[in-house]
Amino acid sequence: MARRDPHPGLLMFIGARYVEQRVADAILAAGYDDLTPAMARIAARLGDDGIRVTDLAAQARVTKQSASVLVDQLERASYVARVPDPADARARLVVLAPRGRAVQRVARQVEAEIEREWTDHLGAERMAALQDALVALREVADPYR
């Protein structure tokens, strides 16, 4: 039986791509014109506690060498810093530097704006249902949740 609508995975990708583009446009408009899409995708995976390059590479689904090159570029542009890992003195963690946190604030503002727009379009109940469904899908689709 032929599917009439696009696969749900494709629909989620379209939404994610839309958010990514809106965030990228806002970051560029805010003057961060040295942040490439590849660098931004790596930086977007950084949490408050930092992450090792090997884990960052696995989550981004790139080689350790590619992740290392991108982290080097981010560090040279002052978006991230490498700090000692408190759990292992031989290891280093990649953390957001103040400039990276400033870019993150721009991204979070745009994400909140998009969420409001989508809620206005779908209505609060459907948006809540969408959020619930996507959170539930993480249990089977996101090994890094």
Offer a concise description of the structure:
This is MarR family winged helix-turn-helix transcriptional regulator. By secondary structure, the chain is mainly alpha-helical. The protein has helices at 8-29, 37-43, 53-60, 64-76, 98-122, 124-141; strands at 80-85, 88-96.
Any overview of this molecule?
The chain has 145 residues and is mainly alpha-helical. It has one domain: Winged helix-like DNA-binding domain superfamily/Winged helix DNA-binding domain (Arc Repressor Mutant, subunit A, Orthogonal Bundle), CATH 1.10.10.10. Helix content is 64%, strand content 10%. The protein is built from six helices and two strands. It has helices at 8-29, 37-43, 53-60, 64-76, 98-122, 124-141; strands at 80-85, 88-96. The protein has a two-stranded antiparallel sheet. A hairpin with a 2-residue loop joins strand 1 and strand 2 (88-96). Helix 1 (8-29) packs across helix 5, helix 2 (37-43) packs across helix 4 (64-76) and helix 3 packs across helix 4 (64-76). The mean pLDDT is 94. Residues 1-139 form the HTH marR-type domain. It comes from Nocardioides ginsengisoli. This is MarR family winged helix-turn-helix transcriptional regulator. InterPro entries: HTH_MarR-typ, MarR/SlyA-like, WH-like_DNA-bd_sf, WH_DNA-bd_sf.
CATH topology name? Arc Repressor Mutant, subunit A
Q: What is the count of DSSP helices, taking H or I runs of 4+ residues?
A: 6
Query: Superfamily at the CATH H level?
Result: Winged helix-like DNA-binding domain superfamily/Winged helix DNA-binding domain
* Percent in helix: 55-70%
Number of domains: 1
Strand segment count: 2
Classify the beta-strand content into a percent band. 5-15%
